[in-house]
Amino acid sequence: MNRSVKEISFFEIKDVQQVPRSPGIYLFYDPKKRPLYVGKAKNLYKRVNSYFRPIQSLPSKVRIMVGNIASFSLILTPSENEALLLENQLIKTHQPKYNILLRDDKTFPYLCLVKEPFPRLLIRRRKTLEGEYFGPYTQVSFMKALYKLLHEVYFLRTCTYPLSFENIQEKKYKLCLEYQMKRCLGPCQGIQTEQDYEENIRQIRQILSGRWTEIKKHLNQKMEEASQKLLFEKAQIYQNMLQKIGGFHTRSLVVQAHLKHVDVFSFLNISSVETQMIVNYMQIREGAISLSDNLLVQSRLEEDNANMLQRAMIHCMEKHQSHASEIISPIPVKRFKDDLNISIPSIGDKKKLLLLSEQNAMLYRDKKMRNRKIPNLMQTMQRDLHMQETPRHIDCFDISHLQGTNTVGAMTCFKDGKPDTKSYRKFKIKGLQGQIDDVKSMKEVLHRHYIRQKKEGHDLPQLIIVDGGKGQLNAAIQVLKDLDLYGLTHVIAIAKRLEEIYVPKEPLPLELSKENPTLQQIQRIRDETHRFVIGFHRNQRSRQSFQSFLRSIKGIGPLSQKRILKSYTTRDQIKSCSLQDLSQLIGKSRALSLKESL
Fold first, then answer.
1. Once rounded to an integer, what is the mean pLDDT over residues 547-561?
2. How many CB atoms lie within 10 A of CB 277?
3. How far is CA 593 from the centre of its chain?
4. Using CB atoms within 10 A as the burial measure, which of 162, 488, 495, 587 is most buried?
5. Strand, coil or helix: what is 90?
6. What is the chain's mean pLDDT, rounded?
């Protein structure tokens, strides 16, 4: 936080008259000190007091929020612009209940230059490695083509060796196939110097930052210098690099050469009941569209279009690490940076860009609206289970073991009534060893899954199903309470024997006939989860049996076992493999012992 930003401690509601008339941030809290709303103001006194005027004069949504406010805190800032940027940061950190929701369609990949000697270039969807990240890239095909180009032009290493100065000097590593195929210049043996490799990395940074013109000028200059020194082979290398980079860049959609570094925003309102809009963001670099992204923005309080669009602008520019000096916008928006120019074009090239952005927003809206058609079954389930929301996203959990051994858990995910196999998850139970306790196992699985979902900021399902009776249901409720998620989703349990549906706070199960479509759908989801967890359990038993078999063979130590298990998981696989393949993996004598034992 900026040093010029000053935070003031908690205020009670009765102290609203003591609020200073300064620019800053206000945070409203419920009785449990959970943030309800974060807002900015040019004059904190006027803004905060406006919430506590006669209740009849407030909009309906604001009334509900004000009824839950127990206290508030303030953060003073030097200006309204700093308040706006700080507000955006606090909304992301606290995710208050009544603030604008900014929803990205999915997690897009980044290109990462890993922080290490002789940096590698990797594709990452999450920022888990230390290094420089470029992106995210909304067009994955473009990103993969760029990734391939950079490896072809700059011969980046793909090995994971720790190439420290000492390791290279001691010749710890051998040249690999990549070097033989002329895809790498051999930094592991000191054939390529670190200085030369770093020069390539510097050029890659320029390309990933969109500075194509600079890199082409640099390579052209190098080619001419090599030609003047009669180093024609080296000049040919630079010419090949220029041709590849130039050819790749011209495949981008060229807009206008004079538009060097511009961001374009447009929006479409998609709801008359709630303030909801789709924002399209286009990035123009070196006269070409480098990316296009869409964002769903929803206000939980009455917010005007300009305010919502401004928040979306800050979010998109931070997400895509944009430092554009100009923004093209369809409506007037307050500047949130001193060096930022906001244009509202009516004619010319900028207007054409704005129209193109609006077309992208319409395309995204049409796709969203098609996907929002809720099947009748979902509405039936909502009615039968007395839910406030339609269960478009359902998670189901089950446990499997054999006499307390190899206890595992699994989760399946259904979206709009269809299995979403990418979201399926498997769990090895860690807290119980040789014990038969399905309730504790269920508790562990639920806690591990939803604490991770909470940390990563994923949306909760509308419905959670646990396989079992009241014990499993109470375990699920306790986990949700411990994670402060209870009440944010609906949870039920289905007992196998009589196919009874248990719900919270009800001593008796729901009365649903066997022909009821809600019960049939829950059974289908439960059966799919059961199939998935049983398959995982069998694999674990088979693997453990295979490991025990390997341990019993003389000469097969832990290292050999590890190598075998990486390639083979059953005895049948070992039987079918050749002695030569097995010898390459663990050596001839061990391979013979293994084959003889079978």
1. 68
2. 22
3. 48
4. 495
5. helix
6. 80
Which pair of tokens denotes residue 93? Answer: 């950190």
Helix/strand/coil for 62: helix
pLDDT above 60 for 8 = no
Spatial distance between the Cα atoms of 22 and 5, rounded to a whole number of angstroms: 12
For residue 367 the two structure tokens come to 């796709």
Amino acid at 309: L
Q: Which residue has the higher pLDDT, 59 or 343?
A: 343
> Which tokens sit at 314?
């800050």
Structure confidence at residue 395 (pLDDT) = 95
Alpha helices in 95-210 (DSSP H): 140-154, 165-169, 177-180, 194-208
Split at pLDDT 50, 70, 90, the class of 329 is very high
The whole-angstrom separation of Cα 492 and Cα 379 is: 17
Strand 121-124 and strand 6-12: the pairing is unpaired
Q: Is the peptide bond before 136 cis (omega within 30 degrees of 0)?
A: yes
CA–CA–CA angle 328, 330, 335 (5° rounding): 60
Instruction: Give 252-273 pLDDT, tens digit per residue.
Output: 444 455 667 889 999 988 765 4
Model's pTM, two decimal places?
0.43
Axis-axis angle for helices 194-208, 140-154 (nearest 10): 150
CA distance 546 to 556: 13
Task: Write out the two tokens for 254.
Answer: 């060229």
Q: In what order do the strands lie in the sheet containing 261-271? A: 101-104, 288-298, 276-285, 261-271, 326-328, 341-343
pLDDT on residue 354: 87
Given a contact cutoff of 8 angstroms between Cβ atoms, the answer to whether 582 and 553 are in contact is no
Would strands 326-328 and 35-41 be described as parallel, antiparallel, or unpaired?
unpaired
The DSSP call for residue 10 is E
Interacting residues of 556 by C-beta distance below 8 A, sequence separation 6+: 550, 564, 586, 590, 593, 594
Mean pLDDT of the 433-454 span: 84
> Residue 133 forms beta bridges with which residues?
112
The residues, any chain, with a CB within 8 Å of residue 126's CB and separated by 6 or more, are 107
Cα distances (angstroms) measured from residue 417 to each of 368, 378, 382, 383: 17, 7, 13, 15
- Interhelix angle for 140-154 vs 232-250, to 10°? 180
**CB hemisphere CA count around 89 (13 angstroms):** 10
**Phi, psi angles (nearest 5°) of residue 75:** -130, 115
The pLDDT of residue 411 is 93
Confidence check: pLDDT of 463 > 90? yes
Calpha distance 537→397 (Å, rounded): 14
Q: Tell me the C-alpha to C-alpha distance, in Å, between residue 239 and each of 157, 183, 220, 528.
A: 22, 18, 8, 58
Token match 């923005």: residue? Answer: 297
- Whether the per-residue pLDDT at 530 is higher than 50: the answer is yes
Helices (H) and strands (E) in the chain, counts: 19, 20
What integer pLDDT is reported at residue 576 of this predicted model? Answer: 64
CA distance 452 to 423: 13
Measuring CA to CA, which residue among 183, 201, 180 is closest to residue 117? 201
